[in-house]
Amino acid sequence: MPPQVSKLTKLVTLTDFFIGEQTNSSIAELGPLENLGGKLCIWNLENVGDVSHAKKANLRSKKYIVKLELRWGYFGDDSTCELEREILELLHPNTKLQDLGIYEYNGKTFPEWVGNPCFSNLASLTLSNSRHCSHLPALGQLEFLKNLEIDGFSSVEKVGSEFYGNCNLNKKPFASLEKLTFSRMPRLQELVSPVHNDECGAFPLLQELRVKYCPEVRKILPNYHLPCLVIFESVELQKLVAPMPRSPVMNVISFGSNVHLTKLPSGRYSLSVRQLIDSTFESLLKGMEQVVHPDSVSTLEEIQLDRCHELRCFPLELFQSLRSLHIVSCQHLESFCEHAGPLHALTSLLSLSIRHCPDIASFPEGGLPAPNLRELIIDDCLRLEELPESMHSLLPSLLVLKVRKCPEVASFPGGGLPSNLQKLKIDQCSKLIAARMQWDLQMLSSLSSFSIRSLHGDDVESFPEETLFPPSLTSLRIHGLRKLKSLDYKGFQHLTNLRKLKIIGCDELQSLPQEGLPSSLKSLDIWVCPSVEKRCQRQKGEDWPKIAHIPDIRIRSIEEFDYDDIISGII
User: Fold this and answer.
1) Which of 245, 254, 269, 357 could bond 221 through an S-S bridge, CB–CB 3.0 to 4.6 Å?
2) Which domain holds residue 464?
3) Cα 391 from Cα 400, distance rounded (Å)
C-alpha cells in the first residue's frame, strides 16, 4: 500500500487494502477514512500484530460499505487462534452491510456479531476455510440472509441446533434464505433440523441446497419439509443413508456438475449424465436410491448418457418406465442387457438412440420388445452386424428409423421392417445399400420419406430401381452417390405422391431421366451435381423442359456453399 493512506480522508472508493508485515501499512490507517463505500477487501490480517490497531480501523463507522471481505493469508496454528478471534471481534462492521465474506480465519469460535440479527441488511454471507472452528455460529437469526456458503470447515462434525439460533413460532430460522451451500467439510456427518418436526419451520424459502465434497455425510435434513426447494445438489456423498429433504416443487437433483436428475411434469424423473469418470453407472444408480428413494430407478422416464466411457453394459431391463433413452459416445458400451435371454416388454419406451458407440456388436437376444417405440436411431456403431431381431412384430409402432455409419450391417432383420414405418434414412452403410433389392420396402404402405447417403458411392450407378419404393413415398433425398450416372425413370414412374426430391453431391450424374420426373413434384433441389446443374439452367438448359412444371426449384453449385456447410455435412 502507498504510505499514509489515512490522510486521504475524502476517499470514497478503496476496493483492496493490504496490511504489511511491518508497520508501513497498518490496518489502523483505515480509521480516518469515514467516507469509504461500495466494496472493501482487507488482506493479510495475519499481519495485525497489535490488537488495538484493529479497533482503530473503526469499521463500524464505515456506513457506506455494502460488501466487506476479511482475509487472512495463511492457515496458522493453535497459538494464533485467540489472537485472531480478538481481531475479528474488533472488526465488527456497520450493520448496513449487505455482503460479508470471512476467509482463512483461524479462530476456534466466531465472535457474537457474526450472526447477530442486528445485521438486518445482510443478504449474502461466505465463511471459508476456518479449519479450527468445530461449531458454526448462529446464522439462522440473520432474518434477511438470502445466500449462505460454508466452505472448508474441516473440524465440524455436525450442524445442529446451534446453527439455527433461537427457535420460536414467531421468528423462523433462515426466514429469507434461498441458497445454501456446504462444501469441503471432510468430517461433517450430519446436517439436521433444529427439532425433530416441522414446528420451527426453518428454511421456508430455500430454493437451492448444495452439499459438496463432504464424504462422511450420512444425514442431510432427513425428511425435513422444504416447501420451496427446487435444486438439490450432492457431490461425493458416498455414505448418505437418510432420505433427502422433502419438497413438493423440487425439480433438479444434481450429483455433481455432470449428473442431473430433473423432475418432469409427470412427477417422474429425467437423468442426464455427462462424462461419468469417477464412478460407475451402477454406483450412480445406487446413490440415487440412497439419496432420492429406494425405487428411484423405476421412476426414471428419460435417460441421456454422454461420454460415459467406463459403461460396458446398460441394464435396460431395470427401466420398465423409461420413455426415452439416448446414449452418445460411450466408447466401450457393448450390450444392453445384464442377463442372458430375452427382455421383458418395454411398453413405455418411445424413443431410443445409440450414437458413436463403436463397441456395440448386437442388440439383446430376441430383439427389443418395445411395442410403443416410435423412433430408433443407430449412428456410428462400427461393430454392429445386425439390427434388432423381429422388428416387424416387436416394434409395430415404429415410425422413424435412421441407420448411419454401420458398415457391418448387411440387411434388415427377418420379416422386414415394421409396416407402420413412415421415415427411413440409410447413411453410409455400404453393405446395407448394396443389398437394397432385398429391403422389401414395397410392403411399407405408410412410408413417406426416404433418404440415402454415401460418401464413397458404393457402386450405385443407377437409382432408384423399379420396385424399390412404395407408391406412398412423398419425399426422396439422394445424397453423395458419387458413382451415380443416371436416374431410373422406372423407379419414379409409380411414385405418384412424390412431392419433394433432393439430389446432392452426385458428381457423375449426367442428366435427368429422358421421360422426366413425376408430375406430382412440388419441390426440387439439385446441389453440387455439375453436369445436371448446367442441363437444368432456367429456360436454356437441355433438361429444363423436364422440370419447368415444378413450382419450387433450387439449383446450387459448390461455389455457393461455405465451409460450415461442408463441415456440417449439408453437402
Assistant:
1) 245
2) 448-571
3) 12
